[in-house]
Specification:
Elements: H1 23-28, H2 49-55, H3 60-64, H4 67-81, E1 86-87, H5 94-99, E2 103-106, E3 110-113, H6 120-124, H7 135-147, E4 153-158, H8 160-169, H9 177-185, H10 187-211, E5 215-219, H11 228-246, E6 253-256, H12 264-269, E7 274-276, H13 283-289, E8 295-300, H14 309-323, E9 328-333, H15 343-355
Parallel strand pairs: 1-4, 4-5, 5-6, 6-7, 7-8, 8-9
Antiparallel strand pairs: 2-3
Helix pairs in contact: 4-7, 7-10, 8-10, 9-10, 10-11, 14-15
């Protein structure tokens, strides 16, 4: 089936919940739900006082391997905001950490790798991920499936390019200079690394799917740093491997990156059913670029959650209206919730989207 064609309704695979009326899943499959569904990237996390209280004194990655804690954190924004989907509380580096990579999340910085991966020996030394190494995450998913009722649960993983960038750069990077240099000067080494990371991402997603998630999102946060030519040559084959590897589960597959307005068609071609759009282009323009047929997710600028309500309300209304150009529209931010956002504003936005 072409990724431009909305998915027909499918019976859930054995062990998966049947949620035929869930607005998020209806829209993700190109249908017209009873209301425009809304959820927020990074909805579970630092913007919520209940999250900060629960995680006090607990390192980020430790919380991601505690089934009860990750389940509770995932549920917090669903209770508070009334969103149409929960997204698993985790991090894109969780499968790397589980596999044995020396990586940690440093407060105020992000993922930091003790020894950057920049040569063949380092690539060969990367461990593989076994499903049992992320069994605490799967256990958390099972708890959530029991507790979420009719609210779908989104699982996720980091895409090979973004994971590779962290490993090569040693941490977050503005220019990705080491990554791009390796990609172009040693393409065989690049493809070996990206292929290994695709396998890790795929194992992580399959563990979540086997435990019962209702959709998956592949985050390629840094793909916007690439030209379309480079994306298609160096990145698309590996992201496609991940998407193809979960296709048999029959759940919606979402692809998202930041600054990827020029890559939307290529990212859909990797196998996405839903294309995430950041705030830099309007949704109706995104649909036009995608050939006039698409399911899209987005795309409120997260910074505008700090604006006055009249400004924010006008933006929400505009985005919902522009989203009507798509076969299906899931309202979201163009990136994640910022830490200092008033959670009451998110609740109000969700309520407004549901009214429109």
């Amino acid at each position: 089936m072409s990724p431009t064609t909305p998915q027909p309704p499918q019976a859930p695979s054995p062990g998966r919940r049947a949620l035929p009326e869930a607005p998020f899943l209806v829209a993700a499959r190109g249908g017209r739900p009873a209301r425009t569904p809304v959820w927020f990237m990074r909805q579970a996390g630092r913007s919520l006082p209940e999250y900060r209280a629960l995680r006090e004194g607990v390192p980020m990655l430790d919380s991601c391997f505690d089934p009860e804690m990750l389940a509770e954190i995932t549920l917090q924004p669903v209770r508070r905001h009334g969103v149409d989907a929960a997204i698993l509380y985790s991090d894109i580096v969780v499968p790397l950490k589980a596999a044995g990579v020396d990586i940690d999340i440093v407060p105020g910085t992000g993922p930091v790798v003790e020894k950057p991966v920049r040569d063949l020996a380092a690539v060969k030394a990367l461990p593989e991920l076994a499903a049992e190494q992320v069994s605490p995450v799967a256990d958390g998913v099972r708890l959530l499936v029991e507790r979420l009722g009719q609210t779908p649960l989104i699982g996720f993983a980091g895409a090979p390019f973004t994971l590779a960038s962290y490993l090569i750069e040693g941490g977050p990077s503005r220019n990705h200079e080491h990554t791009k240099a390796l990609m172009h000067s040693e393409p065989a080494l690049w493809h070996e690394l990206a292929g290994r990371l695709a396998d890790i991402a795929l194992t992580f997603l399959r563990a979540q799917l086997d435990a019962g998630v209702d959709a998956v999102q592949l985050f390629d946060s840094w793909a916007g740093a690439l030209s379309e030519r480079d994306y298609r040559e160096f990145v698309l084959p590996h992201s496609a491997k991940v998407f193809d590897g979960v296709a048999a589960y029959g759940v919606p597959r979402i692809h998202f990156g930041v600054g990827t307005g020029e890559l939307l068609v290529a990212m859909r071609d990797a196998g996405a059913d839903v294309v995430g759009v950041d705030w830099r282009i309007p949704l109706d323009e995104a649909v036009r670029r995608l050939g006039g047929r698409a399911v899209v997710q987005g795309n409120l600028d997260p910074a505008l959650l700090h604006a006055s309500w009249p400004v924010l309300e006008a933006e929400v209304r505009r985005i919902v209206e522009e989203g009507r150009a798509a076969d299906g529209h899931i309202f979201n931010l163009g990136h994640g919730v910022l830490p200092g956002v008033d959670p009451d504003v998110l609740t109000r936005v969700a309520g407004l989207v549901h009214e429109l």
